[in-house]
């Protein structure tokens, strides 16, 4: 009993794999950007602002 040729499966699987990979990649990028990066930048900016304010108070005194 011969096996029927598998036609079109590679193409369908390829598109599914590419779609899933891009979807997960974009999702992970958003999680990193909004979940970690922006919060880290805000903390850093607040730290530098605090240092600048302390330096300004030291020079004024």
UniProtKB/TrEMBL annotation:
Keywords: Membrane, Mitochondrion, Mitochondrion inner membrane, Oxidoreductase, Transmembrane, Transmembrane helix
TM helices/strands, residue ranges: 18-36
InterPro entries in the record: Cyt_c_oxidase_su7a_fun
Gene Ontology biological process terms, A to Z: mitochondrial electron transport, cytochrome c to oxygen
Single GO MF annotation: cytochrome-c oxidase activity
Domain of life: Eukaryota
Membrane disposition: Single-pass membrane protein
Biochemical pathway: Energy metabolism; oxidative phosphorylation
GO cellular component, as recorded: mitochondrial inner membrane
Subcellular location, record wording: Mitochondrion inner membrane
PANTHER family per record: CYTOCHROME C OXIDASE SUBUNIT 6C, CYTOCHROME C OXIDASE SUBUNIT 7A
Free-text function comment from the UniProt entry: Component of the cytochrome c oxidase, the last enzyme in the mitochondrial electron transport chain which drives oxidative phosphorylation.
Family: Belongs to the fungal cytochrome c oxidase subunit 7a family.
Record's protein name: Cytochrome c oxidase subunit 9, mitochondrial
Annotated source species: Boletus reticuloceps
């Amino acid at each position: 009993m011969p096996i029927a040729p598998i036609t079109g499966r590679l193409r369908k699987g390829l598109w599914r794999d590419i779609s899933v990979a891009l979807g997960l990649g974009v999702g992970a990028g958003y999680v990193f950007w909004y979940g970690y990066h922006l919060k880290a930048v805000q903390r850093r900016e607040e730290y530098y602002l605090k240092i600048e304010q302390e330096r300004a108070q030291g020079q004024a005194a």
